[in-house]
Amino acid sequence: MSGSRRVVPIGPYHPLQEEPEFFKLIVEGETVVDLEVNLGYNHRGHEFISPELTYDQIPFLVERICGICSNSHPLACVLAIEDCAGIRPPPRADYIRSIVHELERIHSHLLWVGLAGHFIGYNTVWMWAWRYREHVLEIFEMITGNRNHYAANKPGGVRRDITKDQIPQILSVLDVVEKKTMMLTKAVLDDPVIRARLEGVGILTKEQAVAYSVVGPTARPSGVDIDVRRDDPHCAYDKVPWSVVVLNEGDVFAKAKVRLLEVFESVRIVRGCLENLPDGPIETRIDEVPPGEGIGHTEAPRGEVFHYIRSDGSNRPLRHKVRAPSYMNIASNVVAVRGGSIADAALTLAAVDPCYCCTERMAAFEDSRLKFTGKDLLRLSWEKTEQVRARLGR
Amino acid sequence: MREALKQFRSRFPEVEVYEHNPRRLYLKIPREQITEAAKFLHRECGMRLAICTALDTRDGFEILYHFSEDKTGTMYTVKVLAPKDDPRVESQAPWFPAADWIEREMHELFGVEFVGHPDMKPLLTSDTDWESGRFPLRRDYEKRSEDHER
Question: Which residues in chain A belong to E strands, given as ranges?
């Protein structure tokens, strides 16, 4: 087999990202030598639709870009509108925005950890992570009315207030989530098999991370110290104590570690916000959006989400640019998977936290015959974990 | 905080600076200078390319390069204008992988030509059933009923 190049297609459907992706792994034997990425299978034309809607309607549109981080896009969008209009929401709205945004990060990171566990054959990690994620979704239902698509943000403030009797309930769930995530983190980070399986896999160096301008938990494990919440303070992020998690290894293990540790920082932020939640209105009225332009960006669970608005003074934007974090992160896969094995490739591709559902849709063809299905790739990954386990004698 | 702007002004004296607020700066330069400006902001000032935006305006296509100076949280947006009868801008992709995808996207949605791009195939629109030469985000784009069936 060695010396002959073959193509292992992964995709094309990737249902949870805003664009399903199609990865073509170019392999020599078991080694990945190159990667081609095709996008656009689910291009929905949000930038085309948005200028036809009013500023009040747009947050509902962009909320539907992603089902997992469905608070990030509306938040960045209303920040852009507010930047253009030159207004600030009242302090209470800032705090509520931060609370919803951080709760979203907790559930999104737990989701990723669970799937990563499933992928390397640790189904207990999967079940446990998702079990505690469920509590967070219940808080969402209580404070926003929905488990997903919270519709929390509107230009000028938030839609729903957090009442006094909800605060103790949120705090008690945070206690549970923090305790259980701590246990899970220790179990995952101390497990020699997981370490051996994930360390050194899919390394993205700092130079590569900078050249590809990657963001969020793809950049921070590679030693790039960026976080929009700290760098360009918005909402209540400069009013409560928390810190940015940065590591230097750049491999899949570091990416997992950054996400797990970030859950605790998010818990700290939510607690800080609930403790200091100021009284007052939750909305500033916006009478008009003057001609001009506005940029809003915030740190989504997967990295910086960026919105740009150009206004002509009417109640609709002239142009609305949306950039999701995965747009920058997925491109960096081209360098991260090179040199790894097929068993590692799917894991590396997933380490930037696009959706795992793609693995169910994988198919590899050799001489027009099906070689690997999604299940086979999962099996390959599990077998490698078993080999590592046997080698370590555990 | 303003160090990068000061240097930018002395390097590119033609620049028109508009300060929307202390963290949002817009720098308008002639389109011939974009490569030099982008290299200056990324390599010498250590800025990250957040994304580019293209706009179809009365005067031509505006291409906006949003550079983020993360240590100060400032967005430096570099603007160039490409006239409608000659929508060409130099490509940044050969030296800057972060610009690769977005230039492909702006090319297919606006028809802006990025001179020197290594692989200008469509990023989002279909490579089999989308008519080339139809640019959906141009202002003169006309929707057709059959588009809904695609």
Answer: 5-10, 22-28, 31-38, 153-154, 157-158, 292-300, 303-311, 317-323, 363-366, 369-373
The CATH number assigned to the domain holding A260 equals: 1.10.645.10
Which residues of A are less than 8 Å from B71 in CB distance? Answer: 231
Interface test with A, best of B1, B51, B64 (most A CBs within 10 A): B51
Report d(CA A230, CA A244) in Å as an integer: 8
Of B79, B75, B80, B81, which is closest to residue B20 (Cα–Cα)? Answer: B75
Of the candidates A143, A130, A62, A65, which has an alpha carbon nearest to the alpha carbon of residue A102?
A143
Q: Is residue B141 part of a domain?
A: no
What pLDDT does A15 receive? 36
User: Hey, are the CB atoms on B136 and A211 less than 8 Å from each other?
Assistant: no
Map residue A290 onto helix, strand or coil: coil
Query: Is A122 domain-assigned?
Result: yes
pLDDT in the model for residue A135 = 93
| DSSP secondary structure, A242-285, as one string | ------S--SHHHHHHHHHHHHHHHHHHHHHHHHT---S-SB--
Domain that holds residue A156: 88-287
pLDDT of residue A354 exceeding 80, the answer is: no
DSSP label of B44: I
pLDDT tens for each residue of B89-143 = 999 999 999 999 999 999 999 999 999 999 888 888 777 778 878 898 898 888 7
DSSP A32-80: EEEEEEE--TT---HHHHGGGS-TTTHHHHHHTT-SSSTTHHHHHHHHH
Boundaries of domain holding B84: 3-132
The domain that holds B45 is classified in CATH as 3.30.460.80
Question: How many domains is chain A partitioned into structurally?
Answer: 1
